[in-house]
Design brief:
The complex is a heterodimer of chains A (about 425) and B (about 425). Chain A is of the alpha/beta class and about 425 residues long. In chain A, about 50% of the residues lie in helices and about 10% in strands. Chain A is built from 18 helices and eight strands. Chain A has a four-stranded parallel beta sheet, sandwiched between helices. Chain A has a four-stranded parallel beta sheet with strand order 6-5-7-8, with helices on both faces. In chain A, strand 3, helix 7 and strand 4 form a beta-alpha-beta unit. Chain B is an alpha/beta fold. Among the domains of chain B are: about 100 residues, no CATH class; about 150 residues, ATPase, nucleotide binding domain (Nucleotidyltransferase, domain 5, 2-Layer Sandwich). Chain B is about 55% helix and about 10% strand. In chain B, the strands form two sheets. A five-stranded mixed beta sheet of chain B has the order 7-6-5-8-9. In chain B, strand 5 and strand 6 form a beta hairpin. Classes of the chains: A alpha/beta (about 425), B alpha/beta (about 425). At the A-B interface, helix 17, strand 8 and helix 18 of A face helix 8 and strand 7 of B. Chain B: Its cofactor is [4Fe-4S] cluster. Chain B: This is Benzoyl-CoA reductase subunit A.
Chain lengths: ~425, ~425
């Protein structure tokens, strides 16, 4: 297979991520403290206040998935007694530790100085950090984030999270880093976050155009890279999103679609889809190509919102820093109840003039998968647009069956065609 | 005549359906899928065109008042003779291939003896073929591989013994040859085979007039107007993209063509189970398939049949004799095999265990159906498993239990559903 062709912004974010790996792996020399934390509800701005480097095990698992290492790591973890049905991000991480904990730059990851569990909407995260704590014997700071079971964030919930930030998280990070917390420093960082968030939203919403200048799922995962990881709140992220915006604007002006892995530009877009659920990482390019071959572009997705639902109006707010961090954690996509997710997805189908909703259900992610079939049916009912359901996994290559996935996708696209023809005839 | 053809390249068998431009089914053909999809598609298509010829013969013969009531017999006779001639032609090819394959240096010492054995065996097969294709004889299989294979084994064992030659050696030559023959696309034109069959057949006993009509009918060109491919092997078809349709759509439309009131379709094929909802025009609205693994599909029964040393077609009838049902929990094919041996060891009766296995398959299908949005009236069951009485019995019971009184349609030709949908797409592509 030839090397995948990438947009300039994708190359830029690759450099940024590589830079972060360098910062993490050189921590023993630079003396910086290292935290492990998760993408949803991450408190990058707060960590920055203490000069702590941010290592994200999920991102490591994704990297290992895309570099085709996760399969071996998962087997390693299974040898250690982890069941076949456990989240494969966890097993890829545990397996990587078993194999020397080598970062993508070839250098060993340093042991974390602190485990910052800032989102409990995924129960597995807690168990994952329990395993890491047993391994590293370092302090764990846990921020309990209540589930928004009634579909909205209440002032009480915010107060509860802020109280924990003040009483547990901030003092804990002060102790680990030896740095005194400075709320004005946090305000400055949050102002940069909000700026980048504005540009990200603009880019993601460009999917409303026809043709769409972006693929909001396969391309989208690159676009969210910096803001969902260690760069939110940095000038680098602001610059990245300015550059991304220019790039997308240029395609819009030229009436062009996104660049695809085989180097073609997907301007002739036959199908516009909204996708729910994370992508498969082990066959990422093959999976994307199945869409490209059929002329399908993803115009909106829920996965590109796991690290913040900025398109619904949320911004980190320098005027009210701690409350805004609390709201951010509470507003994670998977922290929203099923009716809210239905509302969001149905609205996407309408707003982005999509042909329908495609669910990529992940075998080992209950946080996403529970209720997805019901979500699909309800979105179908509300929008009158057909849905489809495919099943793959995050980073376990054994659960990506290309023939079956392709078969279902082709069937879905042909079903959309048939429906269109039927509708034209009726008209 | 303009022919619109649908070809369904399944994992086990390949089916083809020929339609005329009014969507009337003119012919059906089936063959084993082999490892070579191109040949399988060519053979299935040729079989469907042969069947189309027979339909055309039928139409021509129906015009003779003097033949009223005799047409079926005449056609059966023509077909029987056609199959016989076709079998002999293939035997000829197989024999020549076997003789070629004894020409390798490894067999130089025994070549002469081996060739004699082969000549003896094929002479025997030709001699026996009359009986095999005699009127009223039920053949165990319609596939050449099965018929020739059974006859060959029988005759070769004796011939090798007489000649003092190793049976394994001849078997080896045969295995190599049958694969080559099976993977060769048909070369003989169907028309020449039919002419030989008509000459051989006494059916044209209707007199020279009838014989002439049959010859004239044979001269009608069968023009391939549009071919649509479907099934797992569809990507292998040398067709442009617009000639390829997903089997979900083809099954949905095929079921609609068989039973226009169909709203829900269940198809249990060799390696997948599909639950499909269609609208009143046969357009697919929703579908679900087995995920990640093929547990509970047709192959499951094939595996169980092997485990019990039974023929696939014998499973259903035996399960129907059950007086109770042994509960089988596992939908995993391999585990079900283990459960089966365990139950046998515990003294359970084979028929009772088989009844449980059939229920396990249908329970899995019911779960896929519920994921696809449940069962709506009318409900059409298709695929190879729809021919299994025990599976149908379980399905009827579970549908009634879960969805109440629903019309359940099963067409005896349901194995052709995908190809039928494909042929309908072919007609639509040209006429709409």
């Amino acid at each position: 297979m030839t090397a995948a062709v990438k947009e300039p912004s994708m190359l830029l974010q690759k450099e940024m991520i590589a830079g972060n790996y360098e910062a993490i792996t050189s921590a023993p020399e630079t003396g910086r403290k290292v935290s492990s934390t998760f993408v949803p509800g991450n408190l990058n701005e707060l960590l920055m206040c203490f000069g702590i480097v941010n290592n994200l095990p999920e991102i490591n698992a994704i990297q290992n998935g895309m570099r085709r290492l996760s399969g071996d790591y998962i087997m390693e973890a299974e040898k250690g007694g982890h069941s076949e049905d456990v989240c494969t991000y966890v097993k890829a991480d545990i397996g990587m530790m078993g194999r020397g904990n080598i970062a993508p730059n070839g250098k060993p990851f340093p042991d974390p100085d602190v485990l910052l569990l800032s989102y409990t909407g995924c129960y597995t995260f807690m168990k994952w950090f329990e395993l890491l704590r047993a391994e590293y014997k370092c302090p764990t700071l846990m921020l309990h984030v209540p589930y928004t079971g009634d579909g909205h964030v209440t002032p009480n919930m915010i107060d509860y999270v802020v109280k924990q930030l003040k009483e547990v998280i901030i003092p804990g990070l002060e102790e680990v880093s030896g740095v005194k917390f400075d709320i004005d420093r946090l305000r400055e960082i949050l102002a940069l976050s909000a700026k980048a968030e504005d540009d990200l939203v603009w880019c993601l919403e460009s999917g409303k155009h026809k043709p769409s200048p972006i693929d909001a799922y396969f391309g989208g995962v690159y676009y969210i890279g910096p803001i969902f990881t260690a760069f939110r709140g940095t000038q680098e992220a602001v610059d990245y999103y300015t550059a991304l915006r220019r790039e997308v604007q240029a395609r819009l002006d030229a009436g062009q679609g996104p660049t695809t892995p085989d180097g073609s530009v997907l301007t002739d877009q036959k199908y516009r889809l909204v996708v729910e659920g994370p992508p498969n990482w082990t066959s990422f390019r093959e999976f994307w190509q199945m869409f490209v071959d059929e002329g399908a572009v993803v115009v909106a997705s829920s996965y590109t919102k796991v690290g913040g639902m900025y398109d619904l109006g949320f911004r980190h707010d320098p005027a009210d820093p701690l409350r805004s961090l609390a709201e951010y954690c509470l507003g994670c996509y998977t922290n929203r109840n099923l009716p809210s997710r239905v509302d969001i997805l149905a609205q996407y189908v309408e707003d982005y003039q999509a042909d329908g909703l495609l669910v990529n259900s992940i075998k080992s992610c209950n946080s996403f998968s529970a209720g997805q079939l019901m979500i699909m049916r309800e979105v179908e009912r509300r929008t009158g647009k057909p849905g489809a359901f495919i099943e793959t996994d995050l980073v376990d290559p054994r659960y990506f069956s290309p023939a079956n996935v392709k078969n279902r996708l082709e069937s879905y696209f042909q079903m959309i065609d048939q429906k269109r023809r039927g509708a034209n005839k009726a008209a | 005549m303009r022919c619109f053809i649908g070809i369904d390249l399944g994992s086990t068998t390949t089916k083809a359906v020929v339609m005329d431009e009014t969507c009337r089914v003119m012919g059906r053909g089936i063959t084993n899928s082999r490892s070579n999809y191109d040949t399988a598609a060519a053979v299935a298509k040729q079989e469907a065109l042969i069947d189309t010829r027979l339909t055309l013969f039928r139409n021509s013969l129906s015009a003779f008042p003097s033949l009223a009531g005799k047409v079926d017999d005449i056609l059966a006779d023509i077909e029987r003779n056609f199959r016989h001639v076709q079998y002999l032609e293939k035997l000829e090819d197989l024999e020549a291939t076997c003789l070629e394959n004894t020409g390798v240096p490894r067999l130089a010492d025994v070549r002469a003896t081996a060739n004699e054995v082969i000549a003896t065996v094929f002479a025997r097969l030709r001699a026996d073929s009359g009986e095999l294709f005699a009127p009223g004889v039920a053949r165990k299989s319609d596939f050449f591989r099965d018929l020739a294979g059974a006859g060959f084994m029988h005759a070769a064992e004796a011939a090798c013994k007489d000649a003092g030659l190793s049976f394994d050696l001849i078997l080896n030559v045969y295995d190599k040859s049958i694969i080559a023959v099976e993977n060769r696309e048909p070369t003989a034109t169907m028309e020449s085979t039919f002419l030989r069959a008509l000459e051989k057949s006494g059916a044209a006993g209707g007199g020279p007039e009838v014989a002439q009509v049959l010859k004239d009918t044979l001269a009608v060109p069968l023009e391939e107007s549009y071919v649509v491919g479907t099934g797992y092997g569809r990507v292998r078809l040398p067709f442009p993209k617009e000639h390829i349709r997903s089997e979900i759509l083809c099954h949905g439309l095929g079921a609609h063509m068989m039973f226009p009131g169909t709203r829900t379709v269940l198809d249990i094929g060799g390696q997948d189970t599909k639950g499909i909802q269609v609208d009143p025009n046969g357009i697919v609205e929703n579908f679900q398939m087995n995920d990640r693994c093929a547990a509970g599909c047709g192959r499951y029964l094939g595996y169980i049949a092997d485990e019990m040393s039974m023929g696939l077609h014998e499973l259903g009838p035996m399960a129907l004799k059950a007086t109770k049902q042994v509960r089988i929990n596992s939908t995993c094919t391999v585990f079900a095999g283990a459960e089966l041996r365990n139950r046998l060891a515990l003294g359970e009766k084979r028929e009772d265990i088989l009844a449980g296995l059939h229920r396990a398959i249908i329970l899995r299908a019911i779960s896929i159906l519920s994921r696809a949005g449940g069962v709506q009236d009318e409900f059409t069951f298709t695929g190879g498993v729809a021919k299994n009485g025990a599976a149908v019995k379980e399905l009827r019971a579970l549908i009634k239990e879960n969805y109440g009184d629903v019309t359940i349609n099963i067409d005896p030709d349901s194995i052709y559903t995908g190809a039928l949908g494909g042929a309908t797409f072919a007609v639509r592509a040209v006429t709409q």
